[in-house]
Automatic annotation (TrEMBL):
Keywords, in A-Z order: Membrane, Transmembrane, Transmembrane helix
This protein's name: Beta-carotene 15,15'-monooxygenase
Transmembrane segments: 12-30, 42-60, 72-89, 95-121, 192-213, 219-237
Length: 354
């Protein structure tokens, strides 16, 4: 993180963290600071700094990534490892058991996370049966049901997102796109699919050329590159299928909009405060903070046709199942006039019912 891009509060936290680390280093390394005969109290204070104070400061500095027990214990273990190198061995000897306790907590958390994977495997057949029976849109429904029945833990979210990717890459070819009065495609009047196919071709060519050259230089690097390239190809294939099979849908009370595997969102009509159309939408800057766009990539620059300004921020599901809040949504559809007519009707109908 560049120092110029952080807030004033974060700069003060950086400074405080630096002071904590520097003071603990200085107390054991500078001859001008004599240690008492029994330094156990000083060492205990340093261990508290490294295992409690420093991790809390780091969590505050990186608060956008979330305050979680897992992250705290990870920073705590790293802090105690750092303490082991900073505190001289003769002073650290009475506290050698402390890092092992911290590692033990980390192992317990790891075992719990593995348990969640077994729980997911147990519930998976039932989840798939429910999706098939209710004929639900798997792109939206599958992660939601997994979160409800299993857990909202980030590992489970990532795995469910990866399962969707493999499903669309391998098992969705017999499905037909959802077509109806209330569905609207985002990609048919663009070069989105052609653009992704071009990327796939580029990755294939790069894999053949660079892999064989790297194989002579480093087998490990060539294998890692091969795995990453194969994953990228599968992702782009799955993304194409997800875009093709999941058009924007106007349900009775909310809109479902997605752009492949990269982002998806459910927007209640009751949360739409204002709508900008065509010329006004085209002049809207997509770089504004809190704005998400569902605009299919094209070889030329394209502008939004519709801007939804929300009353309250809504979470969108991004790559690998991570969530982020947005208060403005930019859209571009293939049939604008029909979409505008239906969306305005549903928003007005929802407002009149309330």
């Amino acid at each position: 993180m560049a120092l110029s891009s952080v807030s004033s509060k974060q700069k003060w936290l950086f400074l405080l963290l630096f002071i904590v680390l520097l003071s603990n280093f200085a107390v054991y390394r500078l001859p001008a600071i004599p240690l008492p005969q029994d330094a156990n109290g000083v060492v205990l204070g340093s261990l508290l700094d490294f295992s409690i104070v420093a991790p809390l400061l780091i969590l505050s500095i990186t608060r956008k990534k979330g305050y979680t027990v897992k992250r705290f214990f990870t920073f705590m273990v790293l802090g105690l490892v750092a303490a082991r190198f900073i505190i001289p061995a003769e002073h650290f000897a009475p506290f050698q058991f402390v890092p092992f306790i911290a590692v033990g907590f980390e192992v317990v958390i790891l075992i719990a996370e593995i348990g969640l994977l077994f729980l997911l495997a147990k519930h998976l057949p039932g989840i798939l049966r429910e999706l098939k029976k209710e004929k639900l849109n798997g792109l939206f429904a599958f992660p939601a049901i997994v979160k409800e029945r299993v857990s909202s833990h980030p590992i489970i979210s990532i795995i469910s997102a990866e399962m969707l990717m493999f499903y669309y890459a391998f098992a969705s070819w017999k499905r037909k796109p959802i077509i109806g009065e209330s569905t609207f495609t985002l990609h048919q009047k663009t070069s989105y699919i052609a653009f992704n196919i071009m990327l796939i071709h580029a990755i294939v060519l790069e894999t053949f050329g660079l892999h064989w050259w790297l194989h002579d230089q480093s087998i490990l690097l060539s294998v890692i590159l091969l795995i990453l390239n194969v994953y990228s190809i599968l992702f782009f294939i799955g993304d194409i299928q997800a875009v093709r099979l999941n058009p924007l849908k106007l349900n009775r009370n909310y809109m479902q909009v997605s752009l492949g595997l990269m982002k998806r969102m459910e927007i209640p009509y009751s949360n739409i405060e204002n709508i900008l159309w065509e010329e006004k939408a085209a002049t809207f800057s997509l770089k504004q903070r809190g704005t998400i766009d569902f605009i299919a990539k094209d070889f030329e620059d394209v502008k939004p046709q519709c801007i939804l300004q929300l009353k309250r921020p809504i979470k969108a599901v991004m790559f690998l199942g991570f969530e982020k809040e947005f208060h403005t949504v930019a859209l571009r559809v293939d049939e604008l006039s029909r979409f505008r007519q239906q969306l305005e009707h549903k928003v007005n109908e929802k407002s009149s019912r309330e």
